[in-house]
Design a protein that fits this description.
Arc Repressor Mutant, subunit A; alpha+beta; single chain; DNA Methylphosphotriester Repair Domain; four-stranded mixed β-sheet
Length: about 190
């Protein structure tokens, strides 16, 4: 079902000038001189206003003779940046217990560490490091519930390199120490 948006030409023009990703998929920008259509968030050089047409869906743009932009890839449902972030998250979930550096993660997805950090923060409002920390604490919480491992064993099992970082991260995310967390779980079961 096609959803028409009620934006004027001027409003859509403002969105593409701002590279506003919130409007990706709601409309597409077609450039008459290049015969290419893009997402509103495309970072390519901006065309002259007189050379622009807007379409509510990509099929209409293709029927008018435009081809998809190779940079922003509007024919792909999710944006390329969202795809990179999804790949990073799945890598973090699968390798949370390893000693990961930003360079290792960026090498895995094929972008520079600086670009990855900026992109990840833009998409998730967190850094890859803080996201990894949350995954590790979730795993630690699960181990505290389901095993008899000591806090120290859990600390190293989930990938923390120092106990002080483990306790600090656990306290900041769960508002208690790992021991208090386990004790509260025991009290709930009794």
């Amino acid at each position: 079902m096609e959803t028409k948006i009620n934006l004027s030409f001027e409003e859509m023009w403002e969105k593409i000038m701002a590279c506003d990703s919130k409007y990706d998929g709601l409309f597409f920008t077609a450039v008459k001189t290049t015969k290419i259509y893009c997402r509103p968030s495309c970072k390519s050089r901006k065309p002259k206003k007189i050379n622009v047409e807007f379409y509510n869906d990509m099929n209409a743009a293709q029927e008018a003779g435009y081809r998809p932009c190779k940079r922003c890839q509007p024919e792909i449902e999710e944006s390329p940046s969202a795809k990179i972030v999804k790949n990073v998250i799945s890598f973090l979930v699968n390798h949370y217990n390893q000693n990961l550096k930003l360079k290792d993660i960026s090498d895995q997805v094929g972008v520079s560490p600086y670009y990855l950090e900026r992109l990840f923060k833009q998409e998730t409002s967190e850094t890859p490091r803080s996201y990894l920390e949350k995954i590790r604490i979730d795993k630690a919480s699960h181990l505290l519930k389901s095993t008899d491992l000591t806090n120290l064993e859990i600390c190293y099992e989930v990938g923390f390199q120092s106990t002080s970082n483990f306790y600090k991260a656990f306290r900041s995310l769960k508002n208690c120490s790992p021991s208090q967390y386990r004790k509260e779980l025991q009290n709930e079961l009794d």
